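Priority: low. Protein: DNA-binding response regulator, OmpR family (Rec-wHTH domains). Input follows.
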Amino acid sequence: MKRLLIVEDNQDIQALLRAVLEPDYQLTAATNGAQALPLLKQQSFDLMILDLMLPGVSGESILKTLRQTSNLPVLVLTAIRDKEHIAAVLNAGANDYLTKPFDIDELVARVRVQLRTQHTHATQALNVEGIVLDPQTHTVKVDGQLIELSRKEFELLALLMQNPHQVFAKEDIYQAIWHEPYLDAENTLNVHLSHLRSKLNIGKKQYVTSVWGIGVRLV
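Result:
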């Protein structure tokens, strides 16, 4: 069952979303950014429904933080009808939006579209700098040569390939792959990164590099 995160502070709207979506999806709810951000780091979701006008951390800030490490589909709910503002939110990484009050049937349809699109993207092969990663066959080739990766190494490489040249903090990588707080996990991540570098280094090119004091990227 697909997992949805609903970030909405209006209890009536949250109850409505639960009534409509809960029969078909596993739902987790948050009423503000302080609740939502840890959930995004610690758990895995297939879609987030995000209200923009939240107490404390705004929906825009949640979206900005999310897009630093994740391509999770985001459907924005907003009472703001200004076209420039909506365009800015879409440009910041939202996948779709609905203005309040919204039609329930349209909401359900848009949720299905985003989940269907996500499935299509998740099964498409990635090709970056001679590395080809195929999620359907769970295979990786470097310059045409097949290499064997563990499940975590595969997920780690997929994350980096989905965001080539982007620098990831190690804490964000760990939480995105292991779905738990970073804490004292630096050694675990370093071991996986070392193994991944070694396996990718067929042509003596350094694909995974460290940026001192910042994190790791795929180049």
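Residues 43 and 102 are 28 Å apart (CA to CA). The first strand starts at residue 3 and ends at 7.
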